[in-house]
Amino acid sequence: MTMNRTSVDAAAVQLFHSLADPARLAIVRLLGDGERRVVDLTAELGLAQSTVSGHLSSLRNAGLVEPHPHGRSTFYALTRPELWRLMAAAEDVLAADGVPARLCPERHRPEATSPADAGHGDAAHAESGHRARPDVDAPATRPGRPH
Fold first, then answer.
1. Sign (positive or negative) of CA dihedral 27, 28, 29, 33
2. What is the pLDDT of residues 51-93, one digit of tens each?
3. Position 124 pLDDT exceeds 80
4. Is 20 contained in some domain?
5. What is the pTM of this model?
6. Strand pairing partners for 78?
7. Residue by residue, what is the 3-state secondary structure of 78-136?
């Protein structure tokens, strides 16, 4: 499938918009530690259920999270381990502007940040059983289990 420039730009805008909110960044960090239900995120963030659901919808539309129904509950999990490289790069950009930030949890921090080494940091995620993409044939994580 060939994407034109407009659709590529729209996808990039959607991705960056999904990360442009403190609550969504907090949700991403929490999901980095393992799958969560909306009720879990609500309790941990102190936000209303409708607010958390809206943030999850934005992250889902950007392809960053996916729901996993388990009985009567639905757990949400991150789908893109590449996100941590993006977060680490954002830290570098902010640091260059004199704004130190910790967006990427230490355990998800890419070992190599140079473009030549990109792509090698996801091996740990692949070995842990985390599904990087829903269309890849690999086992998904179980509810409450870390990625």
1. positive
2. 999 999 999 999 999 999 999 999 999 999 899 999 999 999 9
3. no
4. yes
5. 0.71
6. 65
7. ECCCCHHHHHHHHHHHHHHCCCCCCCCCHHHCCCCCCHHHCCCCCHHHHHHCCCCCCCC
* Domain boundaries, position 33: 10-80
> Which of 13, 14, 146 is closest to 78 using CA atoms?
146
- Asked if residues 51 and 39 have their Cβ atoms less than 8 Å apart, the reply is no
User: Could you tell me which of 53, 61, 55, 63 has the C-alpha nearest to residue 83?
Assistant: 63
CA atoms within 13 A on the CB side of 38: 16
Cα–Cα distance for residue pair 98/11, rounded to 1 Å = 29
- The sheet that has 36-37: what strands, in order across it? 36-37, 73-78, 65-70
In a domain, 96, yes or no: no
Q: What CATH number should be reported for the domain holding residue 29?
A: 1.10.10.10
The residue type found at 41 is L
Q: In which residue are the tokens 């919808």 written?
A: 57
Which residue matches tokens 């230490």?
106
